[in-house]
Design brief:
3 helices, 8-stranded antiparallel β-sheet, 160 residues, 51% strand, 27% helix, alpha+beta, COQ10_START, Alpha-D-Glucose-1,6-Bisphosphate, Chain A, domain 4, COQ10-like
């Protein structure tokens, strides 16, 4: 299945970006296709979240365990729902110009119908999702003037 890895230099602090990504309950307010987010349990190092995604006629709910390694890394492990597997990692590295963000996602739906439907829009969908997080940072923290709020530096698309 397609895998997406992306690296961007973003003019916010790692702490700001970590907090934004870790605030899972707010995802329906800004993330495309996320229609509901519920935190089932939460500690300082981990949370269990149930997300409902919808696109076109499809609507699916899944549960993930999110490991919070403040302020440098967020790992998402799939627990139950429509996927065969889901791996997602955000890494936040300090940079004199802001934060170097590495984003990785790899997943496969159990349903061939869902997989085929998502496969058509996967890469564009992931780019839209990353852009939604950047826009959210701008909305919450304001536009940073030291550098443009986001500058793509490397995008790697891997087809399997």
């Amino acid at each position: 299945m397609p895998t997406h890895a992306e690296q961007r230099l973003i003019a916010y602090t790692p702490e700001q970006l970590f907090d934004l990504v870790a605030d899972v309950e707010k995802y329906p307010q800004f993330l495309p296709w996320c229609v509901k987010a519920t935190i089932k349990s939460q500690t300082e190092q981990e949370l269990v979240a149930e997300l409902t995604i919808g696109f076109g006629p499809f609507r699916e709910t899944f549960t993930s365990r999110v490991t919070l390694e403040r302020p440098s890394r967020i790992r998402v492990r799939y627990e139950k729902g429509p996927f065969r597997y889901l791996n997602n990692v955000w890494t936040f590295t300090p940079d004199p110009r802001g934060c170097l963000v590495d984003f990785f996602v790899d997943f496969e739906f159990r349903s061939r119908l869902l997989q085929n439907a998502m496969g058509v829009v996967f890469n564009e969908g992931v780019r839209l999702m990353v852009s939604a997080f950047i826009k959210r940072a701008r909305d919450i923290y304001g536009v940073q003037t030291a550098q443009k709020p986001y500058t793509p530096t490397r995008i790697i698309l891997i087809e399997r």
